[in-house]
From TrEMBL:
Homotetramer. Pfam families: Alpha_L_fucos (PF01120), Fucosidase_C (PF16757). One of its GO terms (cellular component) is lysosome. Residues 375-459 form the Alpha-L-fucosidase C-terminal domain. It is found in: Lysosome. It catalyses: a neolactoside IV(2)-alpha-Fuc-nLc4Cer(d18:0) + H2O = a neolactoside nLc4Cer(d18:0) + L-fucose; an alpha-L-fucoside + H2O = L-fucose + an alcohol; a neolactoside IV(2)-alpha-Fuc-nLc4Cer(d18:1(4E)) + H2O = a neolactoside nLc4Cer(d18:1(4E)) + L-fucose. The gene is FUCA1. GO terms for molecular function: alpha-L-fucosidase activity. This is Alpha-L-fucosidase. It comes from Podarcis muralis. PANTHER family: ALPHA-L-FUCOSIDASE, TISSUE ALPHA-L-FUCOSIDASE.
Length: 463
């Protein structure tokens, strides 16, 4: 990687070119609809496709996939925190004097087949996919004009990974999201700005903003998943100016969705949908659209060669997280970490396909759904609700004893009808003692039903 004075001069030149571009665009642009301030930006309606999609796949892939140990924060743990076990790992596995930059040529993506990925994600039931274009290590998965030799075109795969996956996903009508880290752990320009108390913006104008504009103009993403925001305020990142351009003048101004990680104190307060924090669970129905991102590997977002089966989410846990998230009005973004060769491990594929199988039967209660007046039934069987218009869906995660399910909240009427998704015959029901519904489930034991980790009742004609 280029460092020192050469990096500074290149960044200064990039910043000057970028300012000229923005100035020229502003001179010819019509009056903006959204102004670069949070009250205006936060008033923008969220494009409807995102709420309807409900289910996405997150992909963490980069140079960190080469050591594939610890987590995707390998470089920081090794050289930032200087944890001894990371140093011992490198000494045992790699030649003496190995630096993090030496991992890049080993990030080969030899077996990366984007069409196969797209097919897998579609079979998993994903309506959108979010790829890491750049993590905190600074390596870009496309030939960025401001990353020079630290990108996937100039080294490693010698391929435009961002572009190839985008083309494959769009062939299958899957929305494409781009994860991008605002900051980089060891970039000299960022460290200089940090030393200056973020009063200077060498890194922002030389690296972050050019990358964001380039990603939007080149790949026209449906979603920008920002991260790496927690050390500096949004004024340092010029977040509101970028978002005003994105909403007013970009080629995706009417369709693009963004999250809330645009500077300190933005999470759960400003932006498009809210992430709030990794693996966020509100516990109640929020008044703002949100997303829960989770990872099949509970200990890492990137691939780990030493992961153990008991550290991975099983099918039941994944479905439970999905159902709870959607019942509270959120989207569910489930992460996998491919290997350095571009292989999605079979155990990850198995989990994704199991999710897709479940959605193949129960997706009617998930996609395009809305929260009902009650989100969770306070009784046994762990029952959650979603709705579509006048139709209510009750998703129960535990099969009740005697195959009789009590739902206290729905109020029956003369037109009430109860069916189970994936089961052809209407179900018998009666008014429960507390005026809810007492439903007689199919007599077959749960193990003989198509799925064993959550079932959905479709309730028509209930109040």
């Amino acid at each position: 990687m280029e460092t020192g004075r050469g990096l500074f001069l290149r960044a200064a030149a990039a910043a000057a070119a970028w300012l000229c571009f923005v100035g020229a665009a502003s001179a010819s642009a019509p009056p903006q609809r959204y102004t670069p301030d949070w009250p205006s930006l936060d008033a923008r309606p969220l494009p409807g496709w995102f709420d309807a999609a409900k289910v996405g796949v997150f992909v963490h892939w980069g140079v960190f996939s080469v050591p594939a140990w610890g987590s995707e924060w390998f470089w920081w743990h090794w050289r930032g925190e200087k944890q001894p076990d990371f140093d011992r790992f490198v000494q045992a596995r790699f030649p003496p004097g190995t630096s993090y930059a030496d991992f890049a040529p080993r990030f080969t993506a030899h077996d990366f087949q984007p069409l196969q990925w797209a097919r897998l994600f579609q079979q998993a039931g994903a309506r959108y996919v979010v790829l890491t274009t750049k993590h905190h290590e600074g390596f870009t998965n496309w030939g960025s004009n401001v990353s020079w030799n630290w990108n996937s075109v100039d080294t490693g795969p010698h391929r435009d990974l961002v572009g190839e996956l985008g083309d494959a996903l769009r062939e299958r009508n899957i929305h494409y999201g781009l994860y991008h880290s605002l900051f980089e752990w060891f970039n000299p320009l960022y460290l200089l700005d940090k030393k200056n108390g973020f009063k200077s913006q060498f890194f922002v104008y030389g690296k972050t903003l050019p990358e964001l504009y380039e990603l939007v103009l080149r790949y026209k993403p449906d979603l920008i998943w920002s991260d790496g925001d927690w050390e500096a305020p949004d004024t340092y990142w010029n977040s509101t100016s970028f978002l005003a351009w994105l909403y007013n003048d970009s080629p995706v101004k009417d369709t693009v969705v963004v999250n809330d990680r645009w500077g300190t104190n933005c999470s759960c307060h400003h932006g498009g949908f809210y992430n709030c924090q990794d693996k966020y669970e509100p516990g109640t129905l929020p008044d703002h659209k949100w997303e829960m991102c989770s990872s099949i590997d509970r200990r890492s977002w990137g691939y780990r060669s030493n992961m153990q089966i008991n550290e991975l989410m099983d099918e039941s846990s994944i479905i439970q997280e999905l159902v709870q998230t959607v019942s509270y009005g959120g989207n569910y973004l489930l992460n996998v970490g491919p290997t350095k060769e571009g292989v999605i491990a079979p155990v990850f594929q198995e989990r994704l396909l199991a999710l897709g199988k479940w959605l193949g039967i129960n997706g009617e209660a998930i996609y395009e759904s809305k929260p009902w007046r009650i989100q969770k039934e306070n009784c046994t069987c762990s029952t959650w609700y979603t709705s579509k218009g006048e139709t209510v869906y009750a998703i129960f995660l535990t099969w009740p004893e005697s195959s009789v399910l009590i739902l206290p909240s729905p109020v029956s009427s003369a037109t009430t009808k109860v069916t189970m998704l994936g089961f052809s015959e209407p179900l018998k029901w009666q008014v429960a003692p507390d005026k809810g519904l007492k439903i007689m489930l199919p007599s077959a034991v749960p193990s003989l039903l198509p799925l064993q980790h959550g079932w959905t009742l479709k309730l028509v004609g209930v109040a």
